[in-house]
Structure formats: C-alpha cells, structure tokens
Amino acid sequence: MTGDHRLGIGDFAVPALLAFAQIIGTWLLTAGTDQPLERGRWTVAVAAILGCNAALIWRRIAPAPVLAATLVLGAAGIVAVDTTEALAGGVADGVALFSLAVHRDRRQAMIGCIAAYAVMSVAFAPVREGTAALLTNGILDAAAYIAITALGQLRRQHKARRRDLAARLAAEERERRDAAGAERERLARDLHDVAGHHLSAVVVHTTAASRIDDPDLTGRALTSAADTGRDVLKALSRLVDVVGGPESGDGRLDTLLPPLCQGLTRLGVPVSLSVEGTRRLRPQVANAAYRIVQEALTNAMRYAQGAAVSVDVRHGSENVEVVVRNGKPPEEIPIPAMGGGRGIAGMRERADSLGGTLTAGPDEDTGGWVVRAVLPHSPSTGRGPGWPEVLDGATLGVCVALPAVLAFAPPDAFLRGWPVGAAALAMVAIIGRALPLWWRRRAPSTVLASLIVIDCVWAVLAGLAGSETMLTLLFFGSAATMVAVSSVGCHARQGVPTWPAPLVAGVPGGVAFAAAAALDHPTGPLEMTVLGVIAWVFAVLVLLPFWAWGRAIAARRAQWETDALETMAARTGEAVVAERHRIAMGLRATVLKHTARLVRAAEDGMASAETDAQKALADVAEHARAALTDMRALLDALQEEKSAETAN
Prior knowledge:
- This protein is mainly alpha-helical.
- It is built from 20 helices and five strands.
- Helix 9 links the parallel strand 1 (271-276) and strand 2.
- Helix 19 packs antiparallel against helix 20 (610-647).
C-alpha cells in the first residue's frame, strides 16, 4: 500500500465499532465478578482501548508502525489493569497484524506475527494464574496469530491475483482491438484484390464488346461476365464465412473445435479433428487451446495452401495436449516466408501464461509444419508449503490442542489421573480425529464423512462403555466438525451439492447427546430418539452458519475470477466475428446486390436476341461500375476507421 492512500469511511468505522465492542465486552466481563474494576482501572482500560483503535485508523497507510503502537498500548493496558477479564489489549493488535500481512511481504508479516505473540505473551504472563493457564492460552494465542498472518497473506495474494487479472483484461482489450483492426485490414485487402480485380475486368470487357458489333464477341463477354460475377459472389461469401471464436461456454474442446474446423473445411481446407477423452477445462485453458488451434489453422491455410491439416487433442490426467500438423503443400503453389513470427509468439505467450509449453517447427514426418501445445489443467502452485498450508496447520493445531488442553491441563482437567496408557490412547484418538482436516481443501466431502463416522463410532462406544468423560471429550472437539462443514461449502467441486453437509454433520451430535442423556437418566428407546432428534436440530442450527460462510467465500471467488476469465476468453473472438458481420452486412447491402444483378443481366442477355444482348452488356457494365463504386466507398470507410484508431 502506498503512502498516498486516502482515508475512507472504513478506516474510521472499523476502529470505532471495535472500540465500542471492547468497552461493552469489558463491562460485561467485569461487572459481575468478585473484583469489578474501580474508576482508576476503568479509566486506564478505556484509554488503552481508545488509543489502540485510534492507531488502527492508519493501518493501511503504515501497518508496521500501527502494529507497534497497538502492541505497546495494549500491553501497557493489560499490565496496568491487571486482569484478563478486561479487553484492554490483545484485540486491536490482531487487526493491525492482519493489515500488516495484507499490505506487506512475507518477511515483514512473519516478523510482525512473532513480535505480536512475544509482546502479548509477556504482557499476559503476570495476570494469568498458573502454568496451565499460561500453557493453554500460549498454544491458542500462537495458533491465532499464525492464522491471522496466514489469512492476511492469503488476502494479499488474492488482491495480487485481481490486479493481475485486471492487467490481463486490459491486455485482452488491446488484443481485441488489434484483432478487429487486423481482421478489418485483411477483409479490405482481400476485398480489393478479389472483387476489385474481377469487377474491373468485367467493366473493361463489356465496354469493349459493346463498341464492336460482333454477336460472337458479345456472347463471350456475357458468358465471361456471368462466370466472373459468380466467382465474385462466391469469393465475397467465403471472405466473411469463418468461425470467429469460442461460442460454447462449457469449456469442452470436443464442442468448441468442430465448428472451427468445419468452417475452414467449407473454405476448401481439408481439416481432420481427433479428440481423445473429454473434460471440462478451466475457461482460460479452453480459450488458450482454442486460440492456439485457430492461429495454427490460419497459418496452415496461409502458408500451406492445399495441404491436409490434422488437429489432435489428448486429455491427460494433469494436462491437455493440442497438436496441429499440416502436410507439405503442392509443389506448384509458392510458399511465402513465415513472416515476423507474431502468430507463433502469441501462441507461446498464451501457453506460458498458464504454465504450459508450446513448440512450433518443421515436421520431419510429413515435410510440413507442426504446432504442439501442452496446457496444464490446474494452475501451478509452486514448490513447498504456502500460506494455505500454514492456515491448515494452524487450524489442525487448534482442533488438536483445544480438547487436549481442556482434558489434561489443570485445574479443570477431566482426564487428570488417568493411567499413562489410557491418556496416550486418548491423545492418539484426539489427534487421529482431527488429522483428516489436513486434506480439507482437496477432499472436503471425504474429510467430513470420515469425521462423521469417527464421531458416531466414538459416541456409540462411549455410551456402551458408560464413559461420560469420553463423551465430554467428543463435545470439546466439535470445532473440527465446524471446520469440515465450512470446508465443504467452500472447496467442494463445482456441481456437487453442499447443502446436506450441516444436516449429516449434526448426526453425531444427536447420537452423543442421546448417549449422554441415557447415562445420566436411563430412558427408553423412544425418549432417547426424541432427545437425539432435538440435539440433532440444535447441532444443525450451530453448523449452518459455518456452511453458509464457506458458500459465501466460494461464491465470491467464483464471481470475480471465473466470470472475468470467461469474459476475457470471448472478447477477441467476438470482436473478429463482429467485424466480419459488419462488413458482411455492408457487402450484402451494396456490392453483393449489384454483383447478383450483374450475373442475372448477363444470363438474361445470353438467352435473348442480339439487340437485347447489346442492352444486357450495358446493364452488366452499369452494375459492375455500381459495385465498384460501392466497394470503394466501403474501403474508404474502413481506411477512415483505421486512421481514427491510429490517431486515438
């Protein structure tokens, strides 16, 4: 974040709301205790809270100094108030650490995390009673600071991806304009070369034949005019009859590529298509593959006229391979030089942007040319663990540490006094239950299913053994279920329904509560079932917000990233198609209309008497001149648009 950031409403609103919540929370926590805060300590607590939150106003502009200020003021407030019930510190510094992690690099974020943990641990040490409290809170504080830092760095990466996406969209917009301009130039050049030459020849021949009173020459002129007019109509129709871009949004190359290949086949280019396997690709991968094939086919049509072209697509487990190969062109057709290489460079840039590869060069087998692209299905994640893994590790640590500390740390340790073997077995059970959370991003549904099975078996065995202690330990580990339900909502594969997650995840809670009730007050099966259903409803109500939170994160991520990439994927093709459509409409309204009348007049003259044939020659010449006039007007308009774009 640069220093020219202007303060906004959020910069003031967040500290104000946080200060209000801390003051109210402090009052609620201390008013009903045996030692409520007297006026002096209240003044210190409020001053520390207001000072810390006032510093947060500049958290985006100067995150490191703000973190230092909140740590110093918060630590001083904790020591001066001398109680853990007052929220004089340990709150605003979390917000400041998150801002530091968002706006600064990894090194500064990690230094801030260590500093915040160290300062707050020292500040809270005198006011926390006993080693157990220090140990418990030390573990939870460490996990909290690590999680805050990881979330901030993930937010930083998220914003970096958005900036990169915005830059790619801007580049795609430039490419769209360049593609439209290049297509307009191509169409203008071909229009001049094809229609201009032929129509000028018709004007010259028919004018010369009309001056010589020779029936044989008149017939040949009309025949030539009719044939030439048909060639012009066919050439102009082919000029704009090329598929322009990926029309399907399903990300499947077996539906995107056939129209492209068929469009070139209609132009006389023999194209064969082979697709091995089917898979829905990410929008940017499908778009890159389509554009690479399109550019390779265009090069084949331009530099290997008459040669057969093959397009082979192979879907692998990790990537998709696209190979476009053309044979050696006939000897009698001259092959121009390969040009500046912009087409190949553009294809290589598309592949490189996705972490793929592209090679292009002569084909030793056919004597022609081959383009081979390998595009990965998923973006490269780099080497080693990143911040998502750090966040997963912190989450896993909390889900293990919380029930373990509550079970074994005095003074309220309900497993204190257990034999060493039984205590070790309980720890193994706690760790084993939470361990599947490490895979919550890759297989969230499997992780949740494993937790449900483990918890149900745990509750049933504890009920059969009559162990209220093990049921209590199970309830203390419910944080793992909340994390798993949220992960299903956030990371489930597209198209997989996630709404059953909180419903099925509440089943172990119902089973455990029914088992606990049966241990306290033995009841019949009906009463146990009713109690289990009530507990299940309560568990579902608790889990629903976590599922909704995961769904909200997933929806937000898909909304800005996937939609933007799909839009980016279609823009260039739409621009080319729109340019062809616009010019096609102009041709259809002017040049094609006069050319069709030219052909009709020539055919009528060929079938009529000599005097009518002479009149037909004049009509043919008139329609040819009109078509040329309209064509020149269209070319002038295209040139003016090019000049206007260059000036801008």
